[in-house]
Amino acid sequence: MLINMNLTIAYKCAVCGAFEFFSLPLFKLIQKKEIKYSCKCTKTGITVFQESQRDVTIKMPCIGCGGEHTFILSRKDIICRAMNILYCPVTGVPQCFAGNDQEVRRKIDSLEKELDELIDMFGYESYFKNTQVMFDTLNKVHDIAEQGNLYCECGNNDIELVLLPDKICLNCRKCAGKRIINAATNEDLKIILMQEQILLFAKYSKSYLQEK
Q1: Which of 5, 72, 164, 201 is deepest in the core (most CB within 10 A)?
Q2: Which of 167, 161, 162 is closest to 183 using CA atoms?
């Protein structure tokens, strides 16, 4: 049995939103005890260290909730799993992928392909102010809707979704209520990722008039 002692880590930067790949030789970690990697934007990075011979600990800032998380991978996780997905414990957003280089890169390729399909659907790449943020925001809105937590104050859950370059407009088909979800910056993304439900404001309510 051939065991690869290099661990590939794909980390989603909390500032620029891009995935950054790091190759971690586990033997190097044993020698140095702690290794730091930075995103190409230089704004964030991750720290990998070994507190015991059996565990690898990864510490990183989170694009989902804005906090910092510490994940522990056991030696069994690293050796027996082709890929480990590390989720934000607050929002459930995939934050990091760690494992076999081929499997990790295949997963990121799949995510980027979904993004390309979204771009193709609209015909041109420059439509959105921040395509990655819009894509992640759409995914979150879809997840909330699937759980039955997208509805209007009037009680209706038949909601129309309209995409603009920097926001998503949600419109109630029954009372014309609405809700605007900003989707232009990573700060906008952070806000929606913290939400478990989306409530549209019924027409002529105080909140509706504030949205206009």
Answers
A1: 201
A2: 167
Q: Where are the beta strands (DSSP E) in the chain?
A: 6-12, 19-25, 34-38, 45-49, 55-61, 68-74, 83-87, 94-99, 150-152, 159-164, 167-172, 178-182, 198-200
Residue 27 near residue 114 (C-beta atoms within 8 A)? no
Judge whether residue 26 has pLDDT over 60: yes
> Which is nearest to 121 in space by CA: 84, 163, 175?
163
Question: CA-CA distance, 36 to 186, in Å (whole number)?
Answer: 23
Q: State which residues form the domain around 109.
A: 6-113
CB within 8 A of 53, min separation 6: which ones?
75
Number of domains in the chain: 2
Residue 46 and residue 139: Cα distance in Å, rounded? 25
Do 136 and 178 fall within a single domain?
yes
- Residues 57-107 have pLDDT tens digits of 899 998 777 789 999 988 788 777 889 999 888 877 788 999 889 899 998
The reply to whether 11 and 84 lie within a common domain is yes
The span from the CA of 130 to the CA of 166, in Å, is 7
Q: How far is Cα 194 from Cα 96, in angstroms, rounded to an integer?
A: 18
Strand order in the sheet with 167-172: 159-164, 167-172, 178-182
Averaged pLDDT, 145-167: 88
Q: What count of other Cβ atoms lies within 10 Å of the Cβ of residue 104?
A: 23
